């Protein structure tokens, strides 16, 4: 791993950890802390989420930046990271049960694109994600961007202030 020291956490045994090793998040690689499935939706929709989603069964593995529109709280912009850099894909609106994705005029990904399908499937199934789907953060709060330094915030992908 480039530029970072990381502590691998098994969130099934949270009580074994009193504190988390201080980390250096210069790395652009995901932190090997898996976001708790019960918290995935809140993490992904926090407003400034940078994450990695991997489906170990299908082999799909993508890095995303999901940002909330400042003027419309239920609208989110989706960027996908690739070898070419950051690619703007499009946006989605979210209501209580409906997720409506649009490519828009400037977007580059249709809803049928595997990168968008993976994200939408993860959002739609976030309350009951199977164990073969892994959502990882990059060591920063998905809302404010501050470093995640304690076990609980690493578990949520949100710092203690933004969790509440």
Radius of gyration: 15 Å
How do the strands line up in the largest sheet?
5-4-3-2-1-6
Supply the helix-strand structural class.
alpha+beta
- Give the overall silhouette: globular
> Stretches where pLDDT falls below 50 for ≥5 residues?
1-26
What value does the average pLDDT take? 82
Helix content: 10-25%
Report the span from N to C terminus: 32 Å
| Number of helical elements | 4
Number of strands: 6
**How would you characterize the largest beta sheet?**
6 strands, antiparallel
**Topology order in helix (H) and strand (E) letters:** HEEEEEHEHH
Proportion of beta-strand residues: 25-35%
Folded structure, characterized:
- The chain has 164 residues and is of the alpha+beta class.
- It has a domain at 47-142.
- It has 4 helices and 6 strands.
- The protein has helices at residues 40-44, 114-124, 151-156, 160-163, and strands spanning 48-55, 61-68, 75-82, 85-94, 99-102, 133-137.
- Strands 5-4-3-2-1-6 form a 6-stranded antiparallel beta sheet.
- A hairpin with a 5-residue loop joins strand 1 and strand 2 (61-68).
- It is globular.
